[in-house]
Amino acid sequence: MKIALINENSQAAKNGIIYASLKKVADTKGYEVDNYGMYSPEDGCSLTYVQNGILAAILLNSKAADYVVTGCGTGQGAMLALNSFPGVICGLVTDPSDGYMFAQINDGNAIAMPFAKGFGWGAELNLEYAFEKLFSEESGQGYPRERAVPEQRNKKILDGVRENNLKDLITCLKGLDQDLVKGALGGEKFKELFFANCKDESILEYVKNLLA
């Protein structure tokens, strides 16, 4: 599994705790982590939570990443932004039980975390334990296990609703301010990581033309 780490500007990005905690857990599972940018307010390129949603949607729909970990001050804005796009199901994870139940019940492909609210002493432990529970088992098995069948049925219903209601990604992106989209792809590592991992030719062509 390839996990992409992206972030709105945040003081929490400065000390590397988020990346280190995720990488530690991912290494035990044999997963790769691509750090697309953990920006602090002092960095020249910082993303709004809306741009987090744009970047996450491009990475997931192009299959450049299998999973996205992101966040903002409270995690709420990033979650809402990511869920505004097709092909993305994002949950708010604030603690280990959130991580485990989101994976088992909702079987999504992205999480948003609060990187300012409550982000103090012991934060690295909460992050590490949340990532451990999020990736502890194959997702979508249900919680509690006896609820697996109705929960899996509800997930299929939700997938059908989203497919009906949300347009294809490129149509969505072209309807946005193109400078906003371009800004979401402005991280120093984006081109290196995305062009090496993108598996969707139409999204690849759109991104190349946008950044030309």
Overview of the molecule:
With 212 residues, the protein is α/β, with parallel strands linked by helices. Helices cover 50% and strands 12% of the residues. It contains ten helices and five strands, in the order E-H-E-H-E-H-E-H-E-H-H-H-H-H-H. The chain has helices spanning 17-29, 49-61, 76-82, 96-106, 123-134, 148-165, 169-174, 178-184, 190-197, 201-211; strands at 2-6, 32-37, 67-72, 90-92, 110-114. The protein has a five-stranded parallel β-sheet, sandwiched between helices. Strand 1 (2-6), helix 1 and strand 2 (32-37) form a beta-alpha-beta unit. The chain starts with a strand and ends with a helix. The mean pLDDT is 91.
Mean pLDDT: 91
Using only C-alpha atoms, the radius of gyration works out to 16 Å
Structural class: alpha/beta
Give the strand order of the largest sheet, numbering strands 1, 2, ... along the chain.
2-1-3-5-4
The string of secondary-structure elements, in order, is EHEHEHEHEHHHHHH
Any low-confidence stretches, pLDDT <50, length ≥5? none
**Helix-residue proportion:** 40-55%
Strand content: 5-15%
Number of helices: 10
- Total strands: the figure is 5
Span between termini: 30 Å
Oligomer: single chain
Summarize the biggest pleated sheet.
5 strands, parallel
| Approximate shape | globular
